[in-house]
Amino acid sequence: MHPKESEDATVELCRESLLSWYGQVKRDFPWRSNPDPYHVWVCEVMSQQTTLKVVLPYFERFVEALPNCRSLAEAPESQLRSLWQGLGYYSRVRNLQRGALHILSNYGEEFPNAYESWLAVPSCGPYTAAVIASVCFGEAVPCVDGNVVRVVSRHAKRGAEVWAPSFRNELMRELGEIICRKNPGDFNQALMELGATVCKPRRPLCEACPVQTSCQSHADGCVHLYPPPKPQKSFRDVELVGLVAQEGGQRVHLVHRRRGFLSETCGFPLLTNREELCRRVRHLGLEGALDFGSRLVKHTITRNRIRLTVAELRCSSSQLSRLISSCSQDSTHIEVQSVGTSQVRDNLSSSLDCKIWEQVFPSRFRRCSSESELW
Ligand code: SF4
Hints:
Layout: H1 3-25, H2 30-33, H3 37-46, H4 52-65, H5 69-74, H6 77-84, H7 90-107, H8 115-119, H9 126-137, H10 146-155, H11 167-178, H12 184-197, H13 216-219, E1 236-247, E2 251-257, E3 265-267, E4 270-271, H14 274-283, E5 290-291, E6 296-301, E7 304-314, H15 317-327, E8 334-340, H16 344-347, H17 351-360
Parallel strand pairs: 1-7
Antiparallel strand pairs: 1-2, 1-4, 2-3, 2-8, 5-7, 6-7
Helix pairs in contact: 1-12, 3-4, 3-9, 9-12, 10-12
This protein binds iron/sulfur cluster.
């Protein structure tokens, strides 16, 4: 057999094994039994920072309350927030709503049916657009997520190149040549499912793998070397004060951050300048109400290595608004909301805020059932 023919036969075999395996073991999610574009779209945006298993109850609640594009486009912000609570990154649900408005104004009651058109929908990057186009409309466009990168890295012994910014585009081109044209949606989902359930980051289950016979790293006994570790990021050290402002021991004032650091999350006011804070607190006549204690939170977000001092302040919500306005050059992006102490945890949408709350009220703190619910 000509080497090219032999290579084609291997690819064909691999594709068939993968699809047949997927047909037998795929997990039963509601958006799979009914690949409605709206459902697939909502599910994909929801699962951007977490797993499908975690997303399931949120998804069901969301599509029951907002069953279509029009209801999503018309939903008040408070409803969006409450449906998204626990998933973090509120900007995603706002983008989802922008996407719904875009679809209604450009396609009426229909959905776009091509990859390129979905790319223009707010909230949809290449990955989300590819999932919807392939699963709902049968377009042969490959999906590349972290699971797929890991499978390819191990299967074809692809090393550090997989971390290059251009690799995902390159991989899209390569997979575009071997994707199953008859059923691209299942092909994409099979590859992602393989990464999520068998070719897992730690302890891959090679004995249960449908493409084991063609896997190069398995054949060479070096699965553990792929993918290689990600290059180290360089970190920036950040000092912050997290302000837990309470009124009468019963109400806690939280802020919705519209822009900037931790934008689109709800939590405690975060301030960068401790001296400025003390000065402004004095100016408002609240100095006796401010208590720094010695509680410290360490946390890393993207490239920021944060050391945060927790301070408590007794004040009203209007005093807190004035304080934030005077400490920040642009406070228009922050909105204060007061909640009962028992509701604080449910309103927090970042793990940094959870850590702050844990410092102040360890006994009331209910640890998240899964860290992936937060970021
Ligand atoms: S054989 Fe093992 S390493 Fe190779 S693709 Fe399958 S699970 Fe991953």
